[in-house]
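Problem 3 from the worked examples.
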Amino acid sequence: MVWIFKTSVNYKKEIKELKPILNNALQPKDKWNFDLEDCDNILRIEADTLEPKQIEKLLNGIGYKCVELIDKIVSIYLIFPICLSLVW
């Protein structure tokens, strides 16, 4: 499963500090990365073992804001076809 989170992580230094925490929480086969160039400072995680709420709790518990964005993305995709049908 792939999860997308909006975070308050702003600097590469913070990612370096989070690396052992995220690696410890995830399985060795799981993947994660940050996109600090995105306005939402995106954290993207590919994992089968954790739920999004666990990631939110982990980061929020150590002082970062972390909110799953998947609901917003799904909403956009649900609305987009309706907008297209109105145009056509």
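Problem 4, a separate protein:
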Amino acid sequence: MSRCPICQLEIPARMLLCLTHWSLVPFPLREPVQYFARTRKGGPSHRKACRQAIDAVEKILEARQKEIEAKAAPKPVRETTLPYRDD
């Protein structure tokens, strides 16, 4: 058993990431990870492909977090004045 490098969830040793985070890996980066896992597991090209996939997921999660924080940030309060009325 190993752990997902992003969430530390316990996963089978054959997996790079948990399923939740693997689903966030862009498809063009999945192919090299899978190909090099079959042909050159542990080699420099495999490690590089894995690092690129992990970096891509971290970047996606960071962008999502910033988006959530931006939505949750309080909006500036605009001072309003009532119209003057002299009766």
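Solution to problem 4. Residues 24-70 form one domain. The chain has a mean pLDDT of 89.
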